Description:
There is one protein chain. This protein is of the alpha/beta class. It has one domain: 3-Layer(aba) Sandwich (Alkaline Phosphatase, subunit A). 40% of the residues lie in helices and 14% in strands. The protein is built from 15 helices and nine strands. The chain has helices spanning 23-27, 30-36, 69-78, 82-86, 99-105, 107-113, 126-133, 141-149, 156-160, 172-176, 187-199, 210-215, 223-240, 278-284, 291-296; strands spanning 3-9, 47-49, 52-57, 118-120, 122-123, 165-166, 203-208, 245-250, 269-275. It has a seven-stranded mixed β-sheet, with helices on both faces. Helix 2 packs parallel to helix 13, helix 6 (107-113) runs parallel beside helix 8 (141-149) and helix 11 (187-199) packs across helix 13 (223-240).
Amino acid sequence: MQRTLLIFLDGVGIGENNAEINPFVKKRFKFLEEIFGGTPTLVNQNLSADGKYLFPVDANMGVDGLPQSGTGQTSIFCGVNAPKIIEKHFGPFPYSTLKPIIEKENIFQSFLEQGAKVCFANAFPKIFFEYINSGRKRLNVTTLMALYSKVKMFNVDDMLAGKGISSDITNRRWNTKLKYNLSTISPEVAADRLLNITAENDFTLFEYFFTDHLGHGRNKDEFDLLLNDLDRFLFEIISKIHKDTTLLICSDHGNLENIAVKGHTNNPTLTITAGYKALELKNKIKNLSQIKLAIMEL
């Protein structure tokens, strides 16, 4: 059976060929250089190699202003032009009038209605569950999707059992920031775990948000470490994706590709497809609102 893995990277665009402001140009990421033979820039936005495709996707969608997470993520996961609906870009959380759309049209719900098995692969710490159990629901789009569609959100026990992956990939920040005492894992082990989870489900989602944090100037002391972990993780995933599995890596807006500014950018988002019908998927996606339908049509 064909399966789909969607890795969502928050705040990653295709930027200038300038190592002073673009970490992707400066660091020469392994998942770009060794798989695609180079780094995408605004003058060279499309790369491909061995049935794997890297290409730009429009996050502006005909609306003035800087793209934001709330509207960008709603567009990706619900298949609508969210900024056009509310007549502006909005974030980081979804605009109130978008929540009914997220509840009914999110990609988890659409797969579940077809009888498919879905998985939200991120694991969440105790403090997150305390927050949502308190009745507060100031959440991003992906966690709202899971709550609305009753998709299980993994906790620390699930993660230790290999069912989920920490949002930082290695578990390290759970120890340093949340005072857990967990064994850390390598990015390669985390990637293999995600591939195993993918093999057990029809649709799997993993979200990585530290790219946006780094673009906003947060976590400066961990900048190189976090990006190195992500690079190794993505390299392992892209290299090992099974021919019967569709991989889509996408983002909601530009940010990290220009660290000269702490806000978002109007740059196209970095998008990658690999595996089953990778070229077909690439050809169908020109802006964020087309991602969900392209996946469902597979």
